Amino acid sequence: MNIRVLHNKRIVLGVTGGVAAYKAAFLASRLTQAGAIVDVVMTEAATRFVAPLTFQAVTRRAVHTDIFALSPDSEPDARAGELQIPHITLAKSANLLLIAPATGNTLAKLAHGLADNLLTAIALATSAPLLIAPAMESEMWAHPATQANVATLVERGATLVGPAAGHLASGAEGVGRMSEPEEILEMARVVLGQKGDLAGRRMVVSAGGTREAIDPVRFISNRSSGKMGFALALAARDRGAHVTLVTAPTALPNPVGVDTVQVESAAEMRDAILSASDGADALVMAAAVADYRPGEVAEQKIKKTDGALTLRLTHTPDILAEVARLRELGRGPKVTVGFAAETEDLLTNAREKLQYKRLDLIAANDVSAADAGFAVDTNRVTLLSADGTAEALPLMSKEEVAHTIWDRVSSLIQE
């Protein structure tokens, strides 16, 4: 599946001589699947761990190893017979230089501006952002020389992901393990999105279904998986926004590059949303917040009896109504977006919610649909605006829905 921020981006993936080079093959595959054009550059030591053919197979592109190699330029706009100088051609075309794994030796070369192989020559010649995933033994990582080199690279604008703690090649446990490919891919999205159209904007997103306690064991909740809210948070992050994600419990991992606030109940979500959204550019409430909670929470587990169990329910806080009051006082977010998850009278119910909660935009979706309800990766929504306009979107991925919503939010902020 193509990921918008990675689609058709040219990524130079540098692979250096560490055992973690085998993970780089999976990373190259995932980047390619996400729509990126991946040019792999391997040091001589890296080829001792993984054959170049492996990377060629997963990227469907030639692998570069020799700084002295010259070949006819295969780019569509190249003049016939023009020769490539690899470290210049790759350096100029790159949208991102990603080095994974990066050994201590390579970190030292990068920090001191050495260019004795193809990869370090590209690093010296490119203006693309640099993302580094270090991998080495704990003692090498902790050495003052390595830490000084890392500090120099970060000061120059490089971004590091990892290293993580875990099992190392020597059999020891410690810090120095290369971050997992999925985490590196997520950080590549963060770096590539830094100059997106939402750069400098502060966005707040809610996700998941709240839980309202009955006793220490049981709770009332709903079927929300959090997927739509997480997609919104990731899409805004990929476009350069500073994102705060306020989420009820889900089975999804916390997004990389997003400030995540974990809550459980509607009351906890209210407090987190009001705090995070004050002065924000936009709030998108994708969470399924419980409308009711038990009036009393038992201190101990309620035991099963022969009789029926009766629960007295009371209203939970109306978060969006409180946000609307804040906006009237000149506080709160500039733009507020809600979701109307309905099973009948979709547009009628959504319009009532849009007006009552004084929203700028609402996304109405029929959650009874098998392909657009809870716990699926697709959605079909109708966007209703405060000005009375309506836009029915076809079935699309939740990532695509998220980007469409941010397109609308961006326009509303500018207005």
Report on the structure:
- This protein is 33% helix and 23% strand.
- The chain is of the alpha/beta class and 415 residues long.
- It has 2 domains: 10-192, 3-Layer(aba) Sandwich (Rossmann fold); 202-300 and 307-414, Rossmann fold.
- The longest helix has 17 residues, at 398-414.
- It is elongated.
- The two termini are 33 Å apart.
- The relative contact order is 0.09.
What's this entry about, in short?
The chain has helices at 21-33, 52-59, 86-93, 104-112, 118-125, 138-142, 144-155, 181-192, 227-238, 266-277, 319-328, 346-356, 398-414; strands at residues 10-15, 37-42, 71-72, 83-84, 96-102, 130-134, 159-160, 164-167, 173-177, 202-207, 212-213, 219-220, 242-247, 259-262, 282-285, 292-294, 313-315, 335-342, 361-366, 378-379, 381-385, 390-392, 396-397. The chain has 415 residues and is α/β, with parallel strands linked by helices.
